[in-house]
Structure formats: structure tokens, C-alpha cells
Amino acid sequence: GACIPSDGSAVFYSNSVVPYYADVPLSVRAVWEGEVQQEFTGGVMMHVFLGEQPEPEAVKKLVHRLATTTKLVYFSITPTLTACTKCGRTTTGHHKACPHCGNPNPDHWSRIVGYYRPVKNWNPGKKAEFKLRVTY
């Protein structure tokens, strides 16, 4: 039978070759995605979801490595953003509370497809996917 992922409240399909909930090392994901992306004429993207603030030099090395050692056509570096509804500050990374004022209910933003939107506004399936995403 088919395996349809769920977070317990909603089922969803992945729009990625290697589903974002699959616990696969980034190096393997990039190779697999790159091999398949070559077969398409457009509409392909591998998001590298980050759960915390990346170091600029590490991002530079990662982008160089992905661009020179894989066949990826398009990829994005996608950190989650925490936006505080109380103090108004935005922080890179997924924080349960605002690191500036302690607000326990900040908004979280990430790419729903190719653009950033507040997770609270996503449809139930994409919210379920977000909860299960593997971050690097």
C-alpha cells in the first residue's frame, strides 16, 4: 500500500523528489535531487531548510559545494524565521519564544513553496509537512 505521511492531524504529499520529512543526509539528498532535476525542463527546486542562524562562511562553503559537486539545477538556503508579534523583531532560526522579549507565541515564517509566508497561514497539509521537516 501507499504511504501517505501525516503529522497526526493532516495528510499531505511532498512536492520534492526526496520528501522533506525523510531523514536523509544533505549530501545524499543533493545527489538524488540533482540526478532527477536534470530530467525536468523547469519547476524543480531543492530547499535546504535550516532550523537556526547559519554562519556566513558555512553557507558560502555549502553553496559552493552544492553548485560544484552535484547536478542540482536550483536550490535554496531556507532558514526558518521567528517573528515576534509583541516586540516586532525578527530572528533567524526556529525559536519557541522570542529570544528578545520572551513572548511565548511568536510567528514562524518559512518557504511554503518558493516564497516565505507565515506558517500559521498555510493550509493544513503544508503545516503538517512543516512540523515534520528535517532541518540541517
Folded structure, characterized:
- The chain has 136 residues and is α+β, with helices and mostly antiparallel strands.
- It has one domain.
- It contains 3 helices and 6 strands.
- The chain has helices spanning 26-37, 56-69, 124-132, and strands spanning 46-50, 75-79, 81-83, 90-92, 107-111, 116-118.
- It has a 4-stranded antiparallel sheet with strand order 4-3-5-6, with no helix packed on it.
- A hairpin with a 4-residue loop joins strand 5 (107-111) and strand 6 (116-118).
- The two termini are 30 Å apart.
- The model has no long low-confidence stretch (mean pLDDT 92).
Strand content: 15-25%
Structural class: alpha+beta
Order of the strands making up the biggest sheet: 4-3-5-6
User: Would you count the extended β strands for me?
Assistant: 6
Structural domains: how many: 1
Low-confidence stretches: none
* Number of contiguous helices: 3
Biggest pleated sheet:
4 strands, antiparallel
The chain-level mean pLDDT equals: 92
Distance between the termini: 30 Å
SSE order, one letter for each helix or strand: HEHEEEEEH
Radius of gyration: 16 Å
Shape: globular
Percentage of helical residues?
Answer: 25-40%
